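Notes from the pairing session

We agreed to fold both candidates in a single pass and log them together. This is the raw record for the first candidate, unedited. Please don't reformat it; downstream parsing expects exactly this layout.

Candidate A
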Amino acid sequence: MQEEVENRTVNLAISTTRLTVRTIIAGIRKFLQYQEKKKAQKGRDPAVHGKQSVKKLLGQNQGAANAEIEKEGIKDFERLAKKYGVDFAVRKDKTVDPPRYFVFVRAKDSDALDAICKEYQARAMTKDKKPSVLAQLSKFKNLVASLPKKIREKKQERDL
């Protein structure tokens, strides 16, 4: 009886060990598969989106459309292009005395360029309609300066 119990115990220990070794080997295999998958993903050349160089934009072989933009409007254009998910490149033309800026967009995104231009113009119009904060500030400064100043008397009385 004792010998039978010992044999069962040994068999249980051996089967448990085999199970653990199999589990460890399976885990290592999964990890190696994950590493290879990650390496393969890294190896692919991800498509560049948003702001990029003209060379990269034209390298996508989809043609390009361009539009002229003012220097002050570049940041606003970048925000709107990011909103619409457009790939673009900004190029400075130094041949003209006040330099001009051109925005190149993929030909496929030319409809989005039209929408961006419309929204940019609408924002510019509302910006012109807004009153100047500095003008209002100077107006209120003059108003405050014209008001009579309060005269405070500093007296301390002591009570006993």
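Candidate B (folded immediately after A)
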Amino acid sequence: MPEVNMTPMMDVIMTILTFFIIVSMTLTSAKTVKDVALPSTDKQDAIQDEPPDPLVVGVDKKGQMILNEAPIDEVKLGTAVVEYLTKNPKGSVVLKADKKVAYEKVLNAVAVLREVGGDRVALAVGDE
């Protein structure tokens, strides 16, 4: 009765295993260059690059615009947004509108914010 000789198959498996071990060791070893001083970063610089908190403007059920939990008219809102964006050049404005407010009121708020805030106006949505 013929028998299967396992020795050649074991030799091939060990050779392949050895190959992959050597390749994985060479890929994970750190490549270093002598006599090179790499620049370092300061953590304070990284913290300063974070964008500031956005200015949140709301529109309640009645269509009244709200800033800092107080009703505000369109002119004062525009002034407040300009001041915020002047102090925070990388800042953004978020508009949170009640889901029951008329669409025209939201468009009015977006128009006011767009005049002064340009492309840095975002609409907030919720899962409620």
